[in-house]
Specification:
Strand content: 15-25%
Largest sheet: 6 strands, parallel
CATH class of the largest domain: Alpha Beta
Helix content: 25-40%
Radius of gyration: 22 Å
Number of strands: 26
Bound molecules: flavin-adenine dinucleotide
Number of domains: 2
Shape: globular
Distance between the termini: 26 Å
Number of helices: 13
CATH superfamily of the largest domain: FAD/NAD(P)-binding domain
Structural class: alpha/beta
CATH topology of the largest domain: FAD/NAD(P)-binding domain
Protein backbone atom coordinates (compact mmCIF):
# COMPACT_ATOMS: atom_id res chain seq x y z
CA UNK A 1 0.00 0.00 0.00
CA UNK A 2 1.32 3.43 -0.95
CA UNK A 3 2.45 5.63 1.93
CA UNK A 4 1.52 9.18 0.88
CA UNK A 5 3.90 10.72 3.39
CA UNK A 6 6.90 8.86 2.00
CA UNK A 7 5.76 9.76 -1.52
CA UNK A 8 5.54 13.43 -0.56
CA UNK A 9 8.96 13.40 1.07
CA UNK A 10 10.45 11.80 -2.03
CA UNK A 11 8.83 14.54 -4.11
CA UNK A 12 10.65 17.20 -2.09
CA UNK A 13 8.50 18.22 0.88
CA UNK A 14 10.57 20.23 3.31
CA UNK A 15 11.01 18.16 6.47
CA UNK A 16 13.81 18.84 8.93
CA UNK A 17 14.43 16.17 11.56
CA UNK A 18 16.00 18.44 14.15
CA UNK A 19 17.69 15.52 15.90
CA UNK A 20 20.07 15.42 12.91
CA UNK A 21 20.93 19.14 12.90
CA UNK A 22 24.69 19.72 12.97
CA UNK A 23 24.43 23.40 13.92
CA UNK A 24 22.07 25.79 15.64
CA UNK A 25 20.04 27.98 13.24
CA UNK A 26 18.03 31.18 12.97
CA UNK A 27 15.16 31.10 10.44
CA UNK A 28 12.90 33.91 9.18
CA UNK A 29 9.32 33.06 8.16
CA UNK A 30 5.87 34.66 8.07
CA UNK A 31 4.22 32.40 10.64
CA UNK A 32 5.54 29.75 12.96
CA UNK A 33 3.08 27.19 14.33
CA UNK A 34 3.87 25.13 17.42
CA UNK A 35 2.21 21.69 17.29
CA UNK A 36 0.85 19.67 14.38
CA UNK A 37 -2.36 18.26 15.89
CA UNK A 38 -5.97 19.22 15.28
CA UNK A 39 -5.26 22.93 15.79
CA UNK A 40 -1.77 23.22 14.26
CA UNK A 41 -2.68 21.10 11.23
CA UNK A 42 -5.74 23.12 10.22
CA UNK A 43 -3.84 26.37 10.81
CA UNK A 44 -0.93 25.31 8.59
CA UNK A 45 -3.29 24.30 5.81
CA UNK A 46 -5.23 27.56 5.78
CA UNK A 47 -2.29 29.94 6.22
CA UNK A 48 -0.21 28.24 3.54
CA UNK A 49 -3.21 28.43 1.17
CA UNK A 50 -2.93 32.23 1.18
CA UNK A 51 0.73 32.09 0.20
CA UNK A 52 2.19 32.76 3.66
CA UNK A 53 5.55 31.15 4.44
CA UNK A 54 4.75 28.73 7.26
CA UNK A 55 6.88 26.61 9.56
CA UNK A 56 5.49 23.84 11.78
CA UNK A 57 7.36 22.88 14.95
CA UNK A 58 6.65 19.44 16.41
CA UNK A 59 8.47 17.75 19.26
CA UNK A 60 7.35 14.26 18.23
CA UNK A 61 8.57 12.28 15.20
CA UNK A 62 7.19 12.03 11.68
CA UNK A 63 5.74 8.54 11.35
CA UNK A 64 3.32 7.26 8.72
CA UNK A 65 1.43 4.21 7.53
CA UNK A 66 4.59 2.24 6.69
CA UNK A 67 5.58 2.58 10.36
CA UNK A 68 2.16 1.69 11.78
CA UNK A 69 2.31 -2.04 12.53
CA UNK A 70 -0.77 -2.39 14.79
CA UNK A 71 1.53 -3.02 17.75
CA UNK A 72 1.05 -1.35 21.10
CA UNK A 73 4.74 -1.90 21.90
CA UNK A 74 5.72 0.33 18.95
CA UNK A 75 2.91 2.83 19.03
CA UNK A 76 2.87 4.03 22.63
CA UNK A 77 6.56 4.98 22.96
CA UNK A 78 6.68 6.41 19.43
CA UNK A 79 3.40 8.28 19.08
CA UNK A 80 2.18 9.24 22.57
CA UNK A 81 3.17 11.73 25.24
CA UNK A 82 5.24 9.94 27.87
CA UNK A 83 4.73 6.58 26.13
CA UNK A 84 0.96 6.71 26.84
CA UNK A 85 1.73 6.78 30.58
CA UNK A 86 1.29 10.54 31.11
CA UNK A 87 -0.47 11.13 34.41
CA UNK A 88 -1.68 13.92 36.61
CA UNK A 89 0.89 15.04 39.21
CA UNK A 90 -0.68 12.79 41.87
CA UNK A 91 -0.76 9.89 39.35
CA UNK A 92 -4.51 9.40 39.89
CA UNK A 93 -5.53 10.04 36.26
CA UNK A 94 -3.92 8.49 33.19
CA UNK A 95 -3.87 10.85 30.21
CA UNK A 96 -3.59 9.80 26.58
CA UNK A 97 -2.26 12.46 24.19
CA UNK A 98 -0.45 12.17 20.89
CA UNK A 99 3.14 13.30 20.40
CA UNK A 100 3.94 12.90 16.73
CA UNK A 101 3.15 14.65 13.46
CA UNK A 102 -0.63 14.94 13.44
CA UNK A 103 -0.65 15.10 17.25
CA UNK A 104 -3.53 13.29 18.92
CA UNK A 105 -5.37 13.09 15.56
CA UNK A 106 -2.86 10.47 14.37
CA UNK A 107 -3.85 8.14 17.21
CA UNK A 108 -7.44 9.13 17.95
CA UNK A 109 -10.49 6.95 17.54
CA UNK A 110 -12.25 9.07 14.86
CA UNK A 111 -15.50 9.90 16.70
CA UNK A 112 -16.79 13.18 15.32
CA UNK A 113 -19.37 15.41 17.01
CA UNK A 114 -20.12 19.12 16.62
CA UNK A 115 -19.98 21.31 19.73
CA UNK A 116 -23.48 21.05 21.28
CA UNK A 117 -25.65 24.23 21.15
CA UNK A 118 -26.04 24.25 24.96
CA UNK A 119 -22.26 24.49 25.32
CA UNK A 120 -22.11 27.59 23.10
CA UNK A 121 -25.02 29.05 25.07
CA UNK A 122 -23.13 28.47 28.33
CA UNK A 123 -20.02 30.16 26.89
CA UNK A 124 -22.14 33.13 25.85
CA UNK A 125 -23.65 33.48 29.31
CA UNK A 126 -20.48 32.94 31.34
CA UNK A 127 -17.61 34.01 29.10
CA UNK A 128 -19.24 36.64 26.88
CA UNK A 129 -18.53 34.65 23.70
CA UNK A 130 -21.48 36.09 21.77
CA UNK A 131 -19.80 35.52 18.40
CA UNK A 132 -19.82 31.73 18.84
CA UNK A 133 -23.05 29.78 18.49
CA UNK A 134 -24.26 26.60 16.84
CA UNK A 135 -25.63 28.76 13.99
CA UNK A 136 -22.56 30.96 13.45
CA UNK A 137 -20.24 27.93 13.59
CA UNK A 138 -22.40 25.68 11.44
CA UNK A 139 -20.71 26.46 8.12
CA UNK A 140 -17.24 26.00 9.68
CA UNK A 141 -18.19 22.57 10.97
CA UNK A 142 -19.76 21.70 7.63
CA UNK A 143 -16.66 22.62 5.67
CA UNK A 144 -14.40 20.60 7.97
CA UNK A 145 -16.79 17.64 7.94
CA UNK A 146 -16.64 17.70 4.17
CA UNK A 147 -12.87 18.10 4.06
CA UNK A 148 -12.19 15.35 6.60
CA UNK A 149 -14.81 12.87 5.38
CA UNK A 150 -16.90 12.99 8.54
CA UNK A 151 -19.73 10.63 7.61
CA UNK A 152 -22.22 8.26 9.22
CA UNK A 153 -20.55 4.90 9.80
CA UNK A 154 -22.71 2.43 7.93
CA UNK A 155 -20.81 -0.75 8.77
CA UNK A 156 -22.52 -2.75 11.56
CA UNK A 157 -21.01 -1.95 14.97
CA UNK A 158 -18.54 -4.42 16.47
CA UNK A 159 -19.71 -6.68 19.31
CA UNK A 160 -18.39 -4.30 21.96
CA UNK A 161 -20.57 -1.47 20.66
CA UNK A 162 -23.53 -3.76 20.00
CA UNK A 163 -23.59 -4.65 23.70
CA UNK A 164 -23.94 -0.97 24.65
CA UNK A 165 -26.74 -0.59 22.08
CA UNK A 166 -28.53 -3.78 23.12
CA UNK A 167 -28.41 -3.08 26.86
CA UNK A 168 -29.45 0.55 26.47
CA UNK A 169 -32.32 -0.28 24.15
CA UNK A 170 -33.64 -2.91 26.59
CA UNK A 171 -33.76 -0.22 29.28
CA UNK A 172 -35.34 2.37 26.99
CA UNK A 173 -32.17 4.47 26.91
CA UNK A 174 -31.66 6.22 23.59
CA UNK A 175 -28.45 5.57 21.68
CA UNK A 176 -27.06 7.02 18.48
CA UNK A 177 -24.50 6.12 15.82
CA UNK A 178 -21.22 7.98 15.85
CA UNK A 179 -19.97 9.72 12.71
CA UNK A 180 -16.33 9.02 11.88
CA UNK A 181 -13.69 10.82 9.81
CA UNK A 182 -12.60 7.91 7.67
CA UNK A 183 -12.37 7.21 3.97
CA UNK A 184 -12.31 3.56 2.91
CA UNK A 185 -11.89 2.26 6.47
CA UNK A 186 -10.99 -1.45 6.72
CA UNK A 187 -12.77 -1.75 10.10
CA UNK A 188 -9.59 -3.06 11.74
CA UNK A 189 -9.88 -1.34 15.14
CA UNK A 190 -6.27 -0.22 15.52
CA UNK A 191 -6.86 3.56 15.12
CA UNK A 192 -4.99 4.18 18.38
CA UNK A 193 -1.77 2.83 16.92
CA UNK A 194 -1.84 4.99 13.79
CA UNK A 195 -4.00 4.00 10.84
CA UNK A 196 -2.08 1.39 8.80
CA UNK A 197 -4.35 1.79 5.76
CA UNK A 198 -4.48 5.61 5.50
CA UNK A 199 -8.23 5.61 6.02
CA UNK A 200 -8.35 7.92 9.02
CA UNK A 201 -8.51 11.49 7.77
CA UNK A 202 -6.20 12.81 10.48
CA UNK A 203 -4.06 15.92 10.19
CA UNK A 204 -1.16 13.62 9.22
CA UNK A 205 -3.02 12.57 6.08
CA UNK A 206 -4.89 15.76 5.16
CA UNK A 207 -3.96 19.26 6.34
CA UNK A 208 -0.25 18.71 6.85
CA UNK A 209 0.38 17.18 3.41
CA UNK A 210 -1.63 20.07 1.94
CA UNK A 211 0.58 22.62 3.69
CA UNK A 212 3.80 20.79 2.79
CA UNK A 213 2.74 20.60 -0.85
CA UNK A 214 2.47 24.40 -0.80
CA UNK A 215 6.00 24.82 0.50
CA UNK A 216 5.53 24.85 4.28
CA UNK A 217 8.45 23.47 6.31
CA UNK A 218 7.98 20.82 9.00
CA UNK A 219 10.47 20.55 11.86
CA UNK A 220 10.21 17.43 14.01
CA UNK A 221 12.01 16.42 17.20
CA UNK A 222 12.09 20.14 17.98
CA UNK A 223 10.61 21.45 21.22
CA UNK A 224 9.32 25.03 21.41
CA UNK A 225 10.85 26.34 24.61
CA UNK A 226 10.16 30.03 24.82
CA UNK A 227 8.63 32.99 23.04
CA UNK A 228 10.66 36.20 23.17
CA UNK A 229 8.69 39.43 23.31
CA UNK A 230 9.06 43.12 24.01
CA UNK A 231 6.04 45.29 24.74
CA UNK A 232 3.10 43.75 22.94
CA UNK A 233 5.13 42.11 20.15
CA UNK A 234 6.56 38.62 20.04
CA UNK A 235 9.83 38.70 18.12
CA UNK A 236 11.08 35.12 18.19
CA UNK A 237 10.46 31.54 19.24
CA UNK A 238 13.40 29.63 20.72
CA UNK A 239 13.39 25.89 20.28
CA UNK A 240 15.61 23.02 21.46
CA UNK A 241 16.37 20.06 19.24
CA UNK A 242 15.87 16.61 20.77
CA UNK A 243 18.03 13.60 20.14
CA UNK A 244 16.65 10.76 18.03
CA UNK A 245 15.39 9.10 21.24
CA UNK A 246 12.91 11.98 21.51
CA UNK A 247 13.80 12.53 25.14
CA UNK A 248 17.24 14.08 25.58
CA UNK A 249 18.28 17.45 24.18
CA UNK A 250 20.83 17.39 21.38
CA UNK A 251 22.33 20.75 22.33
CA UNK A 252 21.28 22.43 19.03
CA UNK A 253 18.93 25.39 19.11
CA UNK A 254 16.65 26.82 16.44
CA UNK A 255 15.34 30.38 16.64
CA UNK A 256 12.39 31.39 14.45
CA UNK A 257 11.70 35.06 13.72
CA UNK A 258 8.22 35.63 12.33
CA UNK A 259 5.42 38.13 11.81
CA UNK A 260 2.98 35.99 13.73
CA UNK A 261 3.22 33.09 16.20
CA UNK A 262 0.59 30.38 16.61
CA UNK A 263 0.61 28.15 19.66
CA UNK A 264 -1.17 24.81 19.10
CA UNK A 265 0.64 22.43 21.44
CA UNK A 266 -2.57 21.04 22.95
CA UNK A 267 -4.16 21.81 26.29
CA UNK A 268 -1.09 20.86 28.33
CA UNK A 269 1.66 21.91 25.90
CA UNK A 270 0.23 25.33 25.00
CA UNK A 271 -0.18 26.80 28.50
CA UNK A 272 3.22 25.33 29.42
CA UNK A 273 4.93 27.16 26.53
CA UNK A 274 3.26 30.45 27.48
CA UNK A 275 4.30 29.93 31.12
CA UNK A 276 7.92 29.19 30.19
CA UNK A 277 7.82 32.40 28.15
CA UNK A 278 6.45 34.43 31.11
CA UNK A 279 3.82 36.02 28.87
CA UNK A 280 1.69 38.63 30.64
CA UNK A 281 -0.96 36.98 32.81
CA UNK A 282 -2.08 39.68 35.25
CA UNK A 283 -5.29 37.86 36.20
CA UNK A 284 -3.47 34.54 36.73
CA UNK A 285 -5.70 32.61 34.35
CA UNK A 286 -3.06 30.78 32.35
CA UNK A 287 -3.04 27.00 32.81
CA UNK A 288 -6.19 27.12 34.93
CA UNK A 289 -9.54 25.50 34.09
CA UNK A 290 -8.00 22.46 32.39
CA UNK A 291 -10.71 19.91 31.69
CA UNK A 292 -10.45 16.20 31.00
CA UNK A 293 -13.88 14.64 30.59
CA UNK A 294 -12.73 12.36 33.43
CA UNK A 295 -13.57 8.81 32.37
CA UNK A 296 -14.71 5.94 34.59
CA UNK A 297 -14.97 2.45 33.19
CA UNK A 298 -17.14 -0.62 33.62
CA UNK A 299 -15.96 -4.02 32.48
CA UNK A 300 -18.30 -6.93 31.77
CA UNK A 301 -17.76 -10.60 31.07
CA UNK A 302 -20.01 -11.92 28.32
CA UNK A 303 -20.81 -15.52 27.39
CA UNK A 304 -19.54 -15.19 23.85
CA UNK A 305 -16.43 -13.66 22.37
CA UNK A 306 -16.49 -9.89 22.08
CA UNK A 307 -13.02 -9.32 20.62
CA UNK A 308 -13.23 -5.67 21.51
CA UNK A 309 -9.89 -4.95 19.83
CA UNK A 310 -11.43 -5.59 16.40
CA UNK A 311 -13.66 -3.26 14.41
CA UNK A 312 -14.32 0.47 14.55
CA UNK A 313 -13.64 1.44 18.15
CA UNK A 314 -16.48 3.81 19.00
CA UNK A 315 -19.55 3.60 16.81
CA UNK A 316 -22.44 3.79 19.34
CA UNK A 317 -23.00 6.43 22.02
CA UNK A 318 -25.67 7.49 24.46
CA UNK A 319 -26.26 11.06 25.60
CA UNK A 320 -29.19 10.03 27.79
CA UNK A 321 -27.32 10.85 30.99
CA UNK A 322 -26.13 14.25 29.74
CA UNK A 323 -29.67 15.53 29.84
CA UNK A 324 -30.89 14.47 33.28
CA UNK A 325 -29.99 17.77 34.99
CA UNK A 326 -29.29 21.36 33.91
CA UNK A 327 -25.87 21.76 32.30
CA UNK A 328 -24.49 23.44 35.44
CA UNK A 329 -26.09 20.92 37.80
CA UNK A 330 -24.89 17.47 38.79
CA UNK A 331 -22.38 16.36 36.13
CA UNK A 332 -23.87 14.60 33.13
CA UNK A 333 -22.00 11.92 31.22
CA UNK A 334 -21.74 10.48 27.74
CA UNK A 335 -21.45 6.72 27.24
CA UNK A 336 -19.19 5.14 24.62
CA UNK A 337 -17.20 1.94 24.20
CA UNK A 338 -13.43 2.17 23.72
CA UNK A 339 -11.22 -0.22 21.76
CA UNK A 340 -9.61 -2.83 24.00
CA UNK A 341 -6.03 -3.79 23.35
CA UNK A 342 -4.09 -5.98 25.77
CA UNK A 343 -1.53 -3.46 27.06
CA UNK A 344 -4.03 -0.65 27.48
CA UNK A 345 -6.54 -2.97 29.15
CA UNK A 346 -3.97 -4.65 31.41
CA UNK A 347 -2.54 -1.36 32.62
CA UNK A 348 -5.99 0.10 33.30
CA UNK A 349 -7.56 -2.94 34.94
CA UNK A 350 -7.52 -3.29 38.71
CA UNK A 351 -5.51 -5.78 40.70
CA UNK A 352 -2.17 -7.49 40.18
CA UNK A 353 -0.63 -10.95 40.24
CA UNK A 354 -2.87 -13.98 39.92
CA UNK A 355 -6.11 -12.01 40.30
CA UNK A 356 -5.11 -9.69 37.46
CA UNK A 357 -4.00 -12.61 35.31
CA UNK A 358 -7.40 -14.24 35.84
CA UNK A 359 -9.16 -11.13 34.57
CA UNK A 360 -6.84 -10.97 31.57
CA UNK A 361 -7.48 -14.60 30.69
CA UNK A 362 -11.03 -13.62 29.77
CA UNK A 363 -9.84 -10.74 27.61
CA UNK A 364 -11.61 -11.90 24.44
CA UNK A 365 -15.00 -12.05 26.20
CA UNK A 366 -14.78 -8.65 27.82
CA UNK A 367 -17.04 -5.72 26.98
CA UNK A 368 -16.07 -2.31 28.27
CA UNK A 369 -18.25 0.79 28.49
CA UNK A 370 -16.88 4.17 29.50
CA UNK A 371 -18.50 7.33 30.81
CA UNK A 372 -17.08 10.74 29.88
CA UNK A 373 -18.00 13.11 32.72
CA UNK A 374 -18.84 16.63 31.49
CA UNK A 375 -16.61 18.78 33.70
CA UNK A 376 -16.38 22.58 33.85
CA UNK A 377 -20.04 23.63 34.00
CA UNK A 378 -21.06 22.98 37.59
CA UNK A 379 -19.49 25.78 39.71
CA UNK A 380 -17.73 23.16 41.86
CA UNK A 381 -16.15 21.56 38.77
CA UNK A 382 -13.26 23.93 38.15
CA UNK A 383 -10.96 21.44 36.43
CA UNK A 384 -7.22 21.23 36.82
CA UNK A 385 -4.17 23.43 36.60
CA UNK A 386 -1.07 23.12 34.43
CA UNK A 387 2.17 24.19 36.07
CA UNK A 388 5.85 23.80 35.27
CA UNK A 389 7.73 20.96 36.94
CA UNK A 390 11.23 19.52 36.61
CA UNK A 391 13.06 20.77 33.52
CA UNK A 392 10.26 23.34 33.09
CA UNK A 393 8.11 20.60 31.58
CA UNK A 394 4.38 20.64 32.27
CA UNK A 395 2.58 18.80 35.02
CA UNK A 396 -1.16 18.79 35.58
CA UNK A 397 -2.92 18.91 38.93
CA UNK A 398 -6.52 17.78 38.69
CA UNK A 399 -8.28 17.41 42.04
CA UNK A 400 -10.98 14.74 41.92
CA UNK A 401 -13.59 16.30 44.19
CA UNK A 402 -17.00 15.17 45.41
CA UNK A 403 -18.77 16.61 42.37
CA UNK A 404 -16.78 14.19 40.17
CA UNK A 405 -17.22 11.16 42.44
CA UNK A 406 -20.96 11.70 42.71
CA UNK A 407 -21.23 11.57 38.93
CA UNK A 408 -18.78 8.67 38.74
CA UNK A 409 -21.01 6.59 41.01
CA UNK A 410 -24.10 7.32 38.90
CA UNK A 411 -22.11 6.45 35.78
CA UNK A 412 -20.79 3.15 37.18
CA UNK A 413 -24.34 2.19 38.16
CA UNK A 414 -25.76 3.13 34.77
CA UNK A 415 -23.08 1.20 32.88
CA UNK A 416 -23.47 -1.92 35.04
CA UNK A 417 -27.23 -1.91 34.57
CA UNK A 418 -26.83 -1.61 30.79
CA UNK A 419 -24.25 -4.42 30.69
CA UNK A 420 -26.47 -6.77 32.71
CA UNK A 421 -29.42 -5.87 30.49
CA UNK A 422 -27.27 -6.89 27.51
CA UNK A 423 -26.64 -10.31 29.07
CA UNK A 424 -23.39 -9.83 31.00
CA UNK A 425 -22.44 -12.71 33.27
CA UNK A 426 -20.30 -10.61 35.55
CA UNK A 427 -19.65 -6.85 35.79
CA UNK A 428 -17.02 -4.89 37.65
CA UNK A 429 -16.31 -1.20 37.83
CA UNK A 430 -12.61 -0.70 37.08
CA UNK A 431 -11.84 -0.16 40.75
CA UNK A 432 -9.28 -1.74 43.07
CA UNK A 433 -11.70 -3.09 45.69
CA UNK A 434 -14.77 -3.83 43.58
CA UNK A 435 -15.33 -7.59 43.91
CA UNK A 436 -17.29 -7.86 40.66
CA UNK A 437 -20.98 -8.69 40.62
CA UNK A 438 -23.03 -11.47 39.07
CA UNK A 439 -26.40 -9.67 39.01
CA UNK A 440 -27.71 -6.15 38.62
CA UNK A 441 -29.20 -6.32 42.12
CA UNK A 442 -25.79 -7.15 43.61
CA UNK A 443 -24.07 -4.50 41.49
CA UNK A 444 -26.58 -1.85 42.50
CA UNK A 445 -25.96 -2.53 46.18
CA UNK A 446 -22.19 -2.95 45.82
CA UNK A 447 -21.54 0.13 43.67
CA UNK A 448 -23.70 2.27 45.96
CA UNK A 449 -21.35 1.38 48.84
CA UNK A 450 -18.05 1.41 46.91
CA UNK A 451 -15.49 3.89 48.28
CA UNK A 452 -14.80 6.26 45.39
CA UNK A 453 -11.39 7.85 45.79
CA UNK A 454 -8.28 8.55 43.73
CA UNK A 455 -6.23 5.38 43.08
CA UNK A 456 -9.11 3.09 44.10
CA UNK A 457 -11.32 4.01 41.18
CA UNK A 458 -9.48 4.21 37.85
CA UNK A 459 -9.90 7.52 36.06
CA UNK A 460 -8.50 8.12 32.59
CA UNK A 461 -8.75 10.78 29.90
CA UNK A 462 -8.01 11.23 26.21
CA UNK A 463 -9.69 14.64 26.01
CA UNK A 464 -7.55 17.44 27.42
CA UNK A 465 -9.12 20.88 27.00
CA UNK A 466 -8.70 24.39 28.38
CA UNK A 467 -5.84 26.18 30.12
CA UNK A 468 -5.78 29.12 27.67
CA UNK A 469 -9.51 29.80 27.82
CA UNK A 470 -11.39 32.15 25.46
CA UNK A 471 -13.49 35.02 26.79
CA UNK A 472 -14.64 38.51 25.90
CA UNK A 473 -12.24 40.28 28.24
CA UNK A 474 -8.78 39.77 29.74
CA UNK A 475 -10.05 39.37 33.30
CA UNK A 476 -12.02 36.29 32.17
CA UNK A 477 -9.79 34.63 29.60
CA UNK A 478 -6.34 34.24 28.08
CA UNK A 479 -7.45 34.75 24.45
CA UNK A 480 -10.44 36.26 22.64
CA UNK A 481 -12.97 34.43 20.47
CA UNK A 482 -10.48 34.48 17.56
CA UNK A 483 -7.79 32.87 19.69
CA UNK A 484 -5.83 36.14 19.83
CA UNK A 485 -3.84 36.65 22.99
CA UNK A 486 -5.13 39.59 25.02
CA UNK A 487 -1.68 41.06 25.71
CA UNK A 488 0.57 40.08 22.78
CA UNK A 489 -0.65 41.36 19.41
CA UNK A 490 1.01 38.83 17.12
CA UNK A 491 0.26 35.71 19.16
CA UNK A 492 -2.66 33.31 18.62
CA UNK A 493 -3.63 30.13 20.44
CA UNK A 494 -5.43 27.80 18.03
CA UNK A 495 -6.11 24.40 19.60
CA UNK A 496 -8.15 22.62 22.26
CA UNK A 497 -6.62 24.71 25.05
CA UNK A 498 -8.94 27.64 24.26
CA UNK A 499 -12.17 25.95 25.40
CA UNK A 500 -13.44 27.60 28.58
CA UNK A 501 -15.16 24.39 29.71
CA UNK A 502 -15.19 20.83 28.50
CA UNK A 503 -17.63 20.00 25.68
CA UNK A 504 -19.56 16.88 26.62
CA UNK A 505 -18.58 15.49 23.21
CA UNK A 506 -15.30 14.15 21.84
CA UNK A 507 -13.35 17.29 20.98
CA UNK A 508 -11.72 16.92 17.59
CA UNK A 509 -14.49 18.39 15.42
CA UNK A 510 -14.97 21.31 17.82
CA UNK A 511 -11.27 22.12 17.38
CA UNK A 512 -11.33 21.70 13.60
CA UNK A 513 -14.35 24.00 13.24
CA UNK A 514 -13.19 26.74 15.58
CA UNK A 515 -9.64 26.72 14.23
CA UNK A 516 -10.89 26.76 10.62
CA UNK A 517 -12.76 29.98 11.48
CA UNK A 518 -9.92 31.57 13.42
CA UNK A 519 -7.11 30.56 11.09
CA UNK A 520 -9.17 31.90 8.15
CA UNK A 521 -9.55 35.26 9.91
CA UNK A 522 -5.83 35.28 10.63
CA UNK A 523 -4.91 34.30 7.07
CA UNK A 524 -7.02 37.17 5.70
CA UNK A 525 -5.43 39.65 8.08
CA UNK A 526 -1.83 38.58 7.46
CA UNK A 527 -2.15 38.18 3.70
CA UNK A 528 -4.32 41.26 3.12
CA UNK A 529 -6.65 39.08 1.05
CA UNK A 530 -10.32 38.16 1.53
CA UNK A 531 -11.17 35.19 3.75
CA UNK A 532 -9.72 32.14 2.01
CA UNK A 533 -12.13 29.61 0.59
CA UNK A 534 -11.20 26.45 2.46
CA UNK A 535 -9.41 24.29 -0.09
C1 LIG B 1 -6.13 7.78 22.09
C2 LIG B 1 -6.98 9.00 21.76
C3 LIG B 1 -8.23 8.82 21.24
C4 LIG B 1 -9.03 9.94 20.95
N1 LIG B 1 -10.22 9.75 20.31
C5 LIG B 1 -10.94 10.83 19.91
C6 LIG B 1 -12.11 10.66 19.14
O1 LIG B 1 -12.50 9.55 18.79
N2 LIG B 1 -12.80 11.78 18.78
C7 LIG B 1 -12.40 13.03 19.16
O2 LIG B 1 -13.10 13.99 18.85
N3 LIG B 1 -11.28 13.20 19.86
C8 LIG B 1 -10.52 12.14 20.23
N4 LIG B 1 -9.35 12.33 20.89
C9 LIG B 1 -8.95 13.70 21.25
C10 LIG B 1 -8.52 14.56 20.07
O3 LIG B 1 -7.70 13.86 19.19
C11 LIG B 1 -7.81 15.79 20.65
O4 LIG B 1 -8.73 16.47 21.47
C12 LIG B 1 -7.28 16.76 19.60
O5 LIG B 1 -6.41 16.13 18.70
C13 LIG B 1 -6.53 17.88 20.33
O6 LIG B 1 -6.01 18.78 19.37
P1 LIG B 1 -4.92 19.83 19.77
O7 LIG B 1 -4.50 20.54 18.55
O8 LIG B 1 -5.41 20.62 20.93
O9 LIG B 1 -3.69 18.97 20.36
P2 LIG B 1 -2.97 17.68 19.79
O10 LIG B 1 -3.73 17.08 18.67
O11 LIG B 1 -2.67 16.81 20.96
O12 LIG B 1 -1.61 18.23 19.17
C14 LIG B 1 -0.64 18.91 19.93
C15 LIG B 1 0.74 18.64 19.32
O13 LIG B 1 1.65 19.62 19.83
C16 LIG B 1 2.90 19.02 20.10
N5 LIG B 1 3.57 19.84 21.09
C17 LIG B 1 3.14 20.12 22.36
N6 LIG B 1 4.00 20.95 22.97
C18 LIG B 1 5.01 21.22 22.07
C19 LIG B 1 6.19 22.00 22.13
N7 LIG B 1 6.53 22.71 23.21
N8 LIG B 1 6.99 22.02 21.05
C20 LIG B 1 6.65 21.33 19.92
N9 LIG B 1 5.55 20.55 19.82
C21 LIG B 1 4.74 20.51 20.88
C22 LIG B 1 2.52 17.63 20.59
O14 LIG B 1 3.61 16.74 20.45
C23 LIG B 1 1.33 17.29 19.70
O15 LIG B 1 1.75 16.61 18.54
C24 LIG B 1 -8.54 11.25 21.21
C25 LIG B 1 -7.26 11.40 21.74
C26 LIG B 1 -6.47 10.30 22.01
C27 LIG B 1 -5.09 10.51 22.55
Amino acid sequence: MEDPIRVGLAAGWKHVDASALAHSQTIDVDVVIVGTGAGGGVTADLLSATGLRVVLVEEGPLRSSSDFKMLESDAYPELYQESAARKTADKAINILQGRCVGGSTTVNWTSSFRTPPEVFAFWQRHFGLQELSAESMSSWFAVMEHKLWVRPWDTPPNANNKILAAGAEKLGIAVGSIKRNVKGCWNLGYCGMGCPTNAKQSMLLTAIPAALSRGATLYTRLRAERLRFAGSQVSALDCSALQADGIHLSGRQVRFRARHFVVAGGAIGSPALLMRSSVPDPYRLLGKRTFLHPVVISSALMDDRVDAYAGAPQSIYSDHFLHQAPIDGALGFKLETPPLHPVLYATTLQGYGEAHARLMRDFTKVNVVLALLRDGFNPASRGGRVRLGAGRLPVLDYPLGEVIWEAARRALLAMAEIQFAAGARWVTPVHETAPGYTSWAAARKGIAELPLKPFLCRVVSAHVMGGCGMADAPHRGVVDHRGRHFWLDNLSVLDGSVFPTSLGVNPQLSIYGLVARNASLLAAELSGRPLPVIP
